[in-house]
Write a structure and sequence with these properties.
The protein is α/β, with parallel strands linked by helices. The protein is built from ten helices and twelve strands. About 40% of the residues lie in helices and about 15% in strands.
Amino acid sequence: MSVTRPVCLVLGATGFIGGHIARCALEEGYHVRGYRRDPGSTGHLGKADIEWFNGDLTDLEALVKAMQAVDVVFHAAAFYPTHSEASEVAEHVAYASGEIKGIIQAARQAKVSRFVYTSSLTTIGQPPSGTNRLADESDFYIPGTLAKSAYYESKIAMEACILEAARDGFPAVVVNPTAVFGPGDVHLTLGKILIAIKRGYVIAWIPATTNVVDVRDVAIGHLAAAQKGRIGERYILGGFNTSVKDIIDRVASIFKVSPPRFCISINFINLIVKIVDFLPFLSSGNHMRAIPFWQGINTQKAEQDLGMVHRPFEKTVEDAMSWFKENGIEV
């Protein structure tokens, strides 16, 4: 007697996180569908057993077709504004909100039973002043805090659309990966930082704290969110809180290169941001203005509810660099 395999669709299966979600789902026995813009792209999945669907995230008909008879949709391809003038932020936010609302409409039309949305660390706000705790899922980025950042403003707008839909019965769970490293970083999102440290290009650090996590643990967290996550809840998929200096020192130690010897102050970073904003031919759509807001994160909710675990950062770095070499990326 044959057993019907559950079916999932990964929006963004050709990407860094999306590709690992697809791999993890295959390992857990899912029939995996991948959605992509470029019909020839497979990301880091290569010849993995994926049923591919081609289309744009604004193509309602193509989305509904890909979502038919799907048990779970993993949306790991949300709009990602990279560079923009401050005057374009509202335009980007409007586009991002329209895109996610269209995807929600398609999932509703296809009667998807679970929707896992990959949001961002940037939508986690700071704890209320006077509270002596790490930021967690109850803290939200306040729109307008970094009003000139299309990335921050778009990410919180999209997440708000998902959570609003969940309150109206849409079966969505939100996951918020922290700073993601590991093998398969096809676009060198954060992998370029590892490569730069190994080459000795990183000559200074910034006095900031962040949370780092392995992409494979993030993928496992997505599957757990689909199976055990509560509708309408957010789950931070993180690993270790650490200083930027410690990250650089640890990576430098792995590759036996000299770590940087001096610190770039927050005041100097703020000055650079002001210069960038003042010069119209430079893009103001950058993450530098957010550095003073970087912080440690409380990851207990995902650990308790989803069973989130994390592997050693050194192992993540070594596997990432090995993947780069195996795939012809000069390190």
